[in-house]
Amino acid sequence: MFRNSHRVTGILFALCLLMGSAATAKAASFADAVALLAADSFSDTEAGITAVAASGHAMAPKVIGALQQSQLLFDANSRRVVIKDGSNVIDATTGERLGEAATGFAPVRLNNRLRRSVEAALGGLTLLSPDRGTRLGAAQSVFRSRDAATLPTLDAAIAKEQDSEVNRALTAARAAVVLYKPDAAEADKLEAVSTIRLRNDQEAVALLSGLPSDTPPTVSRAAQAAITTIQNNLAAWAGVQNAWYGLSLGSVLLLAAIGLAITFGVMGVINMAHGEMVMLGAYTTFVVQEVIRTRYPHLFDLSLVFALPLAFMVAGGIGILIERSVIRFLYGRPLETLLATWGISLILQQAVRTIFGPTNREVGAPSWMTGAFEVGQITITYNRLWIICFALVTFAALLAMLRFTRLGLEMRAVTQNRTMAASMGIRTARIDALTFGLGSGIAGIAGVALSQIDNVSPNLGQGYIIDSFMVVVFGGVGNLWGTLVGAFTLGIANKFLEPYAGAVLGKIAILVLIILFIQKRPRGLFALRGRAVEA
Amino acid sequence: MHAFADRTLGRVGTVFLASILVVAVAVPVSNLLFPPGSPLHMPSYLVALLGKYICYALLALSIDLIWGYCGILSLGHGAFFALGGYAMGMYLMRQIGTRGVYANPELPDFMVFLNWSELPVFWYGFQHFAYAAFMIVAVPGLLAFLFGWFAFRSRVTGVYLSIITQAMTFALMLGFFRNNFGFGGNNGLTDFKEILGFNVQAAGTRAALFAASCLALAVGFVICRAIITSKFGKVLIAIRDAESRTRFLGYRVESYKLFVFTVSACMAGVAGALYVPQVGIINPSEFAPANSIEAVIWVAVGGRGTLIGPIIGALVVNYAKTTFTSGMLAPYWLFLLGGLFVAVTLLLPRGIVGTIQHFWSQRRQARDGEGAVPEPSPAPAE
Is A335 within 8 Å of chain B by CB? Predict the structure, then answer.
């Protein structure tokens, strides 16, 4: 078939010129091209295929497609070509339904050589498709098939292409074809290697490492060098990817743990119902979205903005209720607090299960959180990006609140020296309730964020409770910065372990490492020193 | 014998021990010797159910030994229970032999299913009951020893210890859920046929397993009493109430803790081993942190630091659980269980038995004047 390539190119260019002429001429040329298919000779059929493919006529893909499926029929006497459609036929030049039975026609015959031409023609047709996505897909498939017959169409497509990304894909596809073409010049092949190297992905490596044995040694060496470069590059990107995933996981851990850093870290209350506060936040989001969906659908993109304060209030309110009704009787008895709050978590889970049912609830994503963009070789989804930003903003806001507001000052005073704070006129019981409410409320807004990436079910919270405690204990109790560092360290460590150990084993390894770490530094990474330790 | 009973068990303890042994004989007799129609007959399902409760009671007893007398709140004792259960399950799996679905004389079904060609090394020897029995005690004991060695020496105490024990059982759960861990993955070990040559399903075997569970509970009770009434036990209580003070008095606190933690884990392992043939399955969900913490609430309900209390607590709570979860009230069980956690910690911190003991000692004190010393209630002195 390579012998024919010059002839094919010739016809193609001739027909390309025709394409530029008047519409009637185009229709006439298409009819001529189709008529070639009725000649019942393989060489005419081949010319016909090429001519049809190059015509740019709206019926062209249909005709070639029908040919591939053996649905293209012709009448030996009238030289008419039709497409079989069920028991009827369609005119191949006009697309009209003819209303005749398919019985009087014979199928256009193909041999193996022609089948390849048909495939190449189809690939070529999609390469010239007006749809950008189709062109990109076609370029990819040519890159993989490396079919030399598509070369002329590729050249035509590259010349026409305006979109830079599609152009790159087409150029790479052309380079792949040239590289695997036995009669291509060595200089061309070398250039092809450097073009393919720019693709910088696993497929380029596969292509370059599978070169045929008759490749000139200079090209092979260049390919080898390109493979090394690409692989180094890929390894670097894999590292970046892992770091990104780690940051993403870290931000989730930070969100889940940051409220716990207040209730457990600052107040010293073991709140096993913390995960359920996160769950309540997620369910608040669900309810808000349901209301918006049914009443004000145009506000859907703002649903999370409405959900945030509501989730804070719901979770914070329930937190204050828990503190006033249970926890305040148990200060100084951490083990009992642990058990009582575990009981509360069971009650909250079951309450949510009774109200909303045990199955997952659908929480939609607003349009600004869907989709993704690419940086180099990695894909960054908007929801993960927003969650990282959100976690950091929440952290900063909390830090600022503790540092610069009166309530924050009183909270720090009470946790540092309760008796002294009380004698300075701070109502410690009220501060306790508010601090606990704050920690719970933050868990609630964490739930809003987590509803975007996790299943909203009554068990949502349970999945986070152990991880959150690990983060707080690892980072050091009573230290918000420790929580930040702890969350991101654990997140990134987890994601870097995963490729070697697998997801579950990676998690186990992290748990074991934390257990060992606690042995070494029982008070965490950023332990408080001095008197605060004894408090 | 009398002296031992008086000194070690006390009057209440002796009565309690006697009643466990009476139950150990009475239940099998009622099940096996009386015909099904008789009012004295106990149906077989009830025997299995009670046997399960007795195993839970032993687990609760083991938790009380460390929590009630040494102040170590383990939220991972379910792990030791499950490890003992797995050791027994491995023995029972090897006993299936060629009666499995794939009829492989060497490999359990799930290994054949996973296309494994030979038995993993850690499965060697489990066809012998003696070896399995040794492992039932040794594996949980060894894990507890290693864990305690690290934890107690670096003075991880209080809630920190609770949380890392919870993380430990969580990590084990994740591990046992994996197929390539070699313990049947998600499905665990089940479909047992024989134990020591007797059919696991037979009424006689079930009755014998029940009696064995009661016996184990009785032995466990005596061991715990022996520990806490000895001088060693006094030091344990001192550690519970004032750890630093005890250390300053020259006691190696970590050694005491390590010993009692290991003993407790071994007891939990035995409880798990007796549990598995009676329920017929062991799977990774036994490692779930929720199970361990539920066991802690049995202790709290019965009364920590009383030894009799946890046994009663385990029976009462599990009976309630069975009643609730099998009827129309099933959706409300978690409300009740959750409420129980809150109510016991807030309203009944001494538990059922502890409250009764407290009431009696108060009355005795009021009657005798200042003569009697009340039983110390578990409250930290620091």
Answer: yes
Q: Per DSSP, what are the bridge partners of residue B194?
A: B199
CB contact under 8 A, A350 and B335: yes
Query: How far apart are the C-alpha atoms of A196 and A227, rounded to whole Å?
Result: 10
**CB spacing of B171 vs A353 below 8 angstroms:** no
Domain assignment present for B375: no
Measured between CA atoms, the residue of chain B closest to residue A328 is B346
Q: Which residue of B has its CA nearest to A264?
A: B159
What is the span of the domain harbouring residue A280? 238-533
Give the span between the Cα atoms of B135 and B141, in whole angstroms: 9
Into how many domains does chain B fold?
1
Cα B249 to Cα B246: distance, rounded to the nearest angstrom: 5
The ipTM of this complex is 0.86
In 3-state terms, what secondary structure has residue A373?
Answer: strand
CB contact under 8 A, B160 and A507: no
Instruction: Determine contact: A534 vs chain B, CB below 8 A.
Output: no
Please give the full DSSP string across B112-165, using - where no structure is assigned. HHTT--S--GGGTTTTSHHHHHHHHHHHHHHHHHHHHHHHHHTT--HHHHHHHH
Give phi and psi for A279, each to the nearest 5.
Answer: -60, -40
Neighbour count for residue A126 (Cβ, 10 Å): 20
CB pairs under 8 A, 24+ apart, for B126-134? B126/B87, B126/B90, B126/B91, B126/B93, B126/B94, B127/B91, B127/B94, B127/B95, B129/B91, B129/B196, B132/B87, B132/B88, B132/B90, B132/B91, B133/B273
Q: Quick check: is B379 in a domain?
A: no
- Is A281 inside a domain boundary? yes
Residues in A touching B177 (Cβ below 8 Å) = 504
User: Can you give the pLDDT of all 535 residues of chain A as single tens digits?
Assistant: 444 555 545 454 444 444 444 444 555 677 887 888 777 788 888 888 877 777 767 777 778 878 887 888 888 777 778 888 777 788 877 777 777 776 777 888 888 888 877 777 777 677 777 777 777 777 777 777 777 767 777 787 788 777 888 888 888 888 888 888 777 777 888 888 888 887 777 777 877 777 777 777 888 888 888 888 888 888 888 888 888 888 988 998 898 888 888 888 777 788 889 999 999 999 999 999 999 989 888 888 888 899 999 999 999 999 999 999 999 898 888 888 888 999 999 999 999 999 998 888 888 888 888 888 887 778 888 888 999 999 999 999 999 998 999 999 998 888 888 889 899 999 988 998 999 999 999 999 999 988 888 889 998 888 888 888 888 888 877 778 888 998 999 888 888 887 777 777 777 788 778 877 877 776 676 655 544 444 3
Q: What are phi and psi of A331, to 5 degrees?
A: -60, 140
Instruction: Please report whether residue B45 resides in a domain.
Output: yes
> Which CATH number goes with the domain that contains A519?
1.10.3470
Report yes or no on B380 lying in a domain. no
Tell whether A519 is covered by a domain: yes
CB contact under 8 A, A466 and B170: yes
Beta carbons of A515 and B177 less than 8 Å apart: no
Task: Look at residue A310 and tell me if it is in a domain.
Answer: yes
What is the residue range of B347's domain?
2-368
Q: What is the dihedral of CA A294, A296, A297, A301, to 10 degrees?
A: -120
Place of tokens 């493979």: A227
Domain count, chain A: 1
Please provide residue A479's backbone torsions phi and psi, each rounded to the nearest 5 degrees.
-140, 110
* Helical ranges in A82-163 per DSSP H: 112-127, 132-145, 151-160
Residue A132 within a domain: no
* Contact residues on chain A for B183, CB-CB shorter than 8 A: none
Contact between chains at B345 and A336 (C-beta distance less than 8 A): yes
